[in-house]
TrEMBL record:
One of its GO terms (molecular function) is G protein activity. This is Ras-related protein Rab-13. Belongs to the small GTPase superfamily. Rab family. Keywords: Cell membrane, GTP-binding, Hydrolase, Lipoprotein, Membrane, Nucleotide-binding, Prenylation, Protein transport, Transport. It comes from Phascolarctos cinereus (Koala). The gene is RAB13. Residues 175-203 are annotated as: Disordered. It is found in: Cell membrane; Cytoplasmic vesicle membrane; Recycling endosome membrane.
Length: 203
């Protein structure tokens, strides 16, 4: 039987407890949202196949527990990840400050060439905003990675964020295999913003 996909990419979401990692994955994989908070214990994954540049990309998205006590279990999963999504909550300053620690954790535990993406989630809660978009843009620029503000609740930018990461991984892997002409250059800053309506930082 023919393979149902061209590529399988393993993605991992990390970030403080309660920032919305599980909700982002459920929004992306099942187009659903639940406001009841059930903290993740250990690790779990969901799958969705997306179409990028005519290629079927199967995304296996791993959800980690943000709680410190699960750290040894979850960091063991960094190694196999091709893309890591760092999530903070725009209404929680501490979760943004901790992004630096999560970055360090990636450096210590993930493969060197892993693609990273920064997400400021819960952007539907503008009245409770504590982290300005510009702060996160600056951080993303410093690390040379893309940045989106998302809402798992309203679904704003969720598909865009996952697709942009998948696209970057695809581009990187086709470059590596010498097929860079097969995938058009990934969204430049302008088209990235045009597509998503979000501010993007380029790596
Ligand atoms: N308003 C709003 N609430 C959200 C959003 N995303 C998640 N939440 C809420 O935030 C709480 C925590 O969400 P989770 O997805 O469980 O957070 P988590 O990062 O997986 O947490 P851990 O499993 O403990 O690491 C839940 O009550 C969600 O309903 C969002 O985009 N907007």
């Amino acid at each position: 039987m023919a393979k149902a996909y061209d590529h399988l990419f393993k993605l991992l979401l990390i970030g403080d407890s309660g920032v919305g990692k599980t909700c982002l994955i459920i929004r992306f994989a099942e187009d659903n949202f639940n406001s009841t908070y059930i903290s993740t214990i250990g690790i779990d994954f969901k799958i969705r196949t997306v179409d990028i540049e005519g290629k079927k990309i199967k995304l296996q998205v791993w959800d980690t527990a943000g709680q410190e006590r699960f750290k040894t279990i979850t960091t063991a999963y960094y190694r196999g990840a091709m893309g890591i999504i760092l999530v903070y909550d725009i209404t929680d300053e501490k979760s943004f400050e901790n992004i630096q620690n999560w970055m360090k954790s990636i450096k210590e535990n993930a493969s060197a060439g892993v693609e990273r993406l920064l997400l400021g989630n819960k952007c539907d809660m503008e009245v409770k905003r504590k982290v300005q978009r510009e702060q996160a843009e600056k951080l993303a620029r410093e690390h040379g990675i893309r940045f989106f503000e998302t809402s798992a609740k309203s679904s704003l930018n969720v598909d865009e964020a996952f697709s942009s990461l998948a696209r970057d991984i695809l581009l990187k892997s086709s470059r590596r295999s010498g097929n860079s002409n097969k995938v058009p250059p990934t969204t430049d800053l302008k088209s990235c913003e045009k597509k998503s309506g979000a501010k993007c930082s380029l790596g």
